[in-house]
Specification:
Blueprint: E1 2-6, E2 20-24, E3 27-36, E4 41-48, E5 51-57, H1 62-70, H2 73-85, E6 99-102, E7 105-108, E8 110-114, E9 117-121, E10 128-130, H3 136-162, E11 169-173, E12 180-182, E13 187-191, H4 199-211, H5 220-229, H6 233-242, E14 249-250
Helix pairs in contact: 3-4, 4-5, 4-6
């Protein structure tokens, strides 16, 4: 979480940046102060229950930045409460029984000790070795990304040809909040996590980005074009809304 504040006026740049400390509800929190030449305002971010980050724009000052941070103790306190209430992410310590999606199907992880670490079986690929359970996610995501790189670009070009469109280039990326994007230059970027969705949903995302080659917005004309090439797009949109990135894995099978 971060908060921003506009500069109150011109201030000469500080010769150096330093760390600070502010008090929030009787608890001292360390403040890392950074300067960013492209920042247009003061930015405050809660990194952990003990650490804050303050970004100062090129024409800002440490003094004004500290004043801004100290004025936001209520926001900091509320942010800490929200962060504490969040469920523990699945990014560490993957284990037996945890499941992940691929092409719309859940696959379970089976972990067994091995002479050089741990053997991981998923039912999707041949068993592979990891040094520790903390490496399971990294290895599985690497394989999913490889699958996405092999399958998504050819499918995108195939769909483009069907609709008389030309894609200049395709990139497989790891966007944090987007399934894909299309640039004015005709470059389409696809999130590797698309490969975890059911095939019809994968096609919808690819068609969605292809339609941006004709309409670089989300106007009525754009959605009309989407519906023409993908009449069931609303069902795919619903799937995407109910399967955010953090829901592409689950700890245990759902009750039947």
């Amino acid at each position: 979480m971060f908060l921003s504040g506009f500069l109150p006026g011109f201030c000469a740049p500080e010769p150096r940046l330093d760390a600070g400390v502010i008090e929030v509800q009787g608890k001292k929190m360390r403040l890392e102060i950074r300067r960013h030449p492209q920042a247009r305002r003061y930015l405050l971010k809660v990194l952990s229950p003990e650490l804050l980050a303050l970004t100062i724009p090129r024409r800002g000052s440490v003094k004004e930045g500290m004043r801004f941070a100290q004025s936001q103790t209520h926001w900091i306190s509320q942010t800490l409460l929200r962060q504490a209430a969040r469920p523990t992410p699945l990014s560490e310590g993957w284990h037996d029984g945890l499941q992940f999606l691929s092409a719309g199907h859940f696959y379970s992880i089976t972990l067994a000790p091995a002479p050089t670490g741990f053997s991981v079986t998923t039912g999707l690929w041949p068993s592979f070795l990891v040094e520790s359970p903390e490496r399971i996610r990294e290895e599985i995501e690497k394989r999913l990304c490889s699958t996405a790189s092999a399958q998504l670009p050819p499918r995108l070009h195939e769909l483009a040809a069907q609709h008389g469109l030309t894609v200049n280039s395709v990139q497989i990326r790891s966007q944090k909040t987007r399934w894909g994007s299309c640039s004015q230059q005709g470059t389409i970027s696809l999130n590797w996590r698309i490969i975890q969705a059911p095939t019809p949903v994968q096609d919808y995302i690819l068609l969605h980005e292809l339609m941006h080659l004709q309409h670089m917005d989300h106007s009525r004309r754009f959605w009309s074009a989407v519906e023409k090439v993908c009449p069931t797009y609303r069902q795919s949109e619903q799937w995407l809304k109910s399967h955010r990135f953090h829901q592409l894995w689950r700890i245990a099978p759902e009750s039947s």
